[in-house]
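Continuing the batch. This is chain 6 of the set; chains 1 through 5 are on the previous pages. Same settings as before, nothing changed between runs. Recording input and output for traceability.
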Amino acid sequence: MIPLRALKFINLKILFLMLFLLGIGLAFIYSASYQDSGALLFVHKQLFFIGVGLIAFWFAMNMEFRTLNLASPFFYFSSLLMLVLVLWVGQIHNGAKSWFDFGFFSLQPSEIAKMGIVFMLARYLSERREDRFKLSYVLISTIWVGIPMLLILKQPDLGTAMVLVPVLLGMLFIAGARLRYLVGMILLSVLSLPVIWSVLHSYQRQRLMVFLNPNRDPLGSGYHAIQSKIAVGSGGWFGKGWLQGTQSQLHFVPERHTDFIFSVLGEEWGFIGCWMVLLAYLLLILSALQVATSSEDLFGRLLAVGFVLVLIAHVIINTGMTVGVAPITGIPLSLISYGGSHLITIMACLGFIENIHIAKNLR
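Output for chain 6:
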């Protein structure tokens, strides 16, 4: 544990922006569900998740920095074990066997795996930095990410697997891997698209086809995308007012408190409200990247960058699918969407970034 005197080095921008986005999330979870029976249930459960997340944030922030590197294999292999177990005993939700059901709380191991992957990748890339110009440096890193990615695809959860790709490429780039190897990975990924297409489930293919043309199935697979775009577009510049959205309040927008909460925000707070929230994300990301660039420890720098990339991927994919520029993948909007596993994981990640910031100032 770090000494209490070190708490004066907390990055207040990260803390306040995190709390601001959590507050926005509570407001729109309430707006998306207050007309339902048991309306406050989602808000109460989200408050519970936030409480657990704050505990995770505190512990992550207060861990001894040098133990983070040592604990990386534990984080990685324990999350790997959970990914294996969930394929046996997990609960099926929306067609994916991705959850452990504990009654009041469901745990999604793939969310924890994102954190474990970042830890293990940061450890490997920093310890083997002398090999950064070798092809093996990239290949072994890909294996560390590829094993859990395959287990996640087996569930199947294409959206979470997609998040891991920019994390791998971004961390390799920061670690100093040869650019030609990274370009080669991207080209190889593009060339493998026909193979990937052939192994996708039929509903996943349908989602991708509907992304290109939602009107091919307006009452089926394209319904989510069409209603979401109508909601966002109808908000105009300033929105219809909190609790006043028609698409969301009349239940035209599906999954409005989880995956499509940004469409509720867009309808009720309009274009200005959307940009205010996106600006808060941008400031949070820039603050976290500032911690990464100022860290004198390569492991800490890579760890912070990895966590930031997870956040960036979630924000871009979620808001993109809401406005129709990305396929629907079931990715939540970090700190705002209802749900425990991703929320607690992201808050823990921000706690680790605070840890890196404090450790740098204590040196």
